[in-house]
Fold this protein.
Amino acid sequence: MDQRISFITLVVADVEASRRFYVDGLGWEPEVHVAGEVLMLRAGERLILSLWDRMAAEHEIGPVSAGGTPPVTLAHNLPDEAGVDAVLAEARGAGAEIVAEPRRREWGGYSGYFADPDGYRWEVACNPGPIGQSVL
């Protein structure tokens, strides 16, 4: 098996609310949109973020737990701190809850977090280390 991830699928309560947030609010371009069922957004050269309606997901994969903070964090890495501040402001303008204001971190970077309509946490970071620079 190749060492790669092709799709990240998140189960969401309301695909249309997710569309309003990611497409209308953040300006992402949909690759596939089946109203009420799934929204797929290109998140990288070979990576799709798929937002899948809870009922459709449970039909295929079985029960999905709900409640609390989902145990996953997505990250958006930027080359500088100003970019972090700008993206967090854009997310706030799109209706995101800022769950951690940006600040300098003990690992040497600068980051903050927002939550999308389903509570998925997005880290917005400037990671000056080699691994952070490798994904710019």
The chain has a mean pLDDT of 93.
